[in-house]
Design brief:
With 63 residues, this protein is an all-alpha fold. Helices cover 43% and strands 0% of the residues. The chain has 3 helices and no strands. It is globular. The protein starts with a helix and ends with a helix.
Length: 63
């Protein structure tokens, strides 16, 4: 599964400049739902909730 996502990221990166490219990513377990507070009623990502829940993973990407 991670190989499939990596291929998709690589394909997407071919269409953009280096500055716009995805250089690292993580797959996280679970789903983003309204019930767990990760999505709004209009299904937009609650960035603050996601950042708090996945703080360690985000820091590892930028560390």
């Amino acid at each position: 599964m991670i190989a499939d996502v990596g291929k998709a990221v690589g394909d997407a990166n071919e269409a953009v400049s280096r500055a716009e490219s995805i250089r690292g990513f993580r797959l996280v377990a679970g789903e983003f739902t309204e019930e767990n507070g990760m999505l709004t009623p209009s299904l937009k990502v609650r960035r603050r909730a996601v950042a708090e829940a996945y703080k360690a993973e985000i820091e590892a990407l930028y560390g």
